Amino acid sequence: VTITRQALTLPIADFRRGQMLTFGARPLAQLAYLHDGVTPVAFCITRDGAPDTDLAAETREGLPIVHWAKNGTSYMVIGDIPNEELVGMAEVLRGRL
């Protein structure tokens, strides 16, 4: 996945940093944002061979998440912010990547 700074710019959250991690022996990109200057939101990307899926919203371990997959890559936006804002962030990011 090619990611540009412009693709990561969101109107309701400030991009703070990115880092490469490992999850289940696979590389995982974690991009960190601050929503309204206070609440952290993570955008995670991993290439896992998953089939394409549409946006889906749910709660895991008490945190709202929105996830989808495209071309064998899975994406997840995680943050304790209003669900409609989290979905909006995910829609913008999905449209840019």
Protein traits:
55% strand; 2 helices; globular; six-stranded antiparallel sheet; 19% helix; alpha+beta; 97 residues; single chain
Description:
By secondary structure, the chain is α+β, with helices and mostly antiparallel strands. The chain has helices at 5-8, 83-96, and strands at residues 13-23, 26-35, 39-47, 53-60, 63-70, 73-79. It has a six-stranded antiparallel beta sheet, with helices on one face. It starts with a helix and ends with a helix.
Rg (CA only): 12 Å
Helix-strand category: alpha+beta
Helix percent reads: 10-25%
- SSE arrangement, N to C: HEEEEEEH
Summarize this structure briefly.
The chain has helices at residues 5-8, 83-96, and strands at residues 13-23, 26-35, 39-47, 53-60, 63-70, 73-79. With 97 residues, it is of the alpha+beta class.
Summarize the helices and strands and which ones pair or pack.
Blueprint lengths: L4 H4 L4 E11 L2 E10 L3 E9 L5 E8 L2 E8 L2 E7 L3 H14 L1
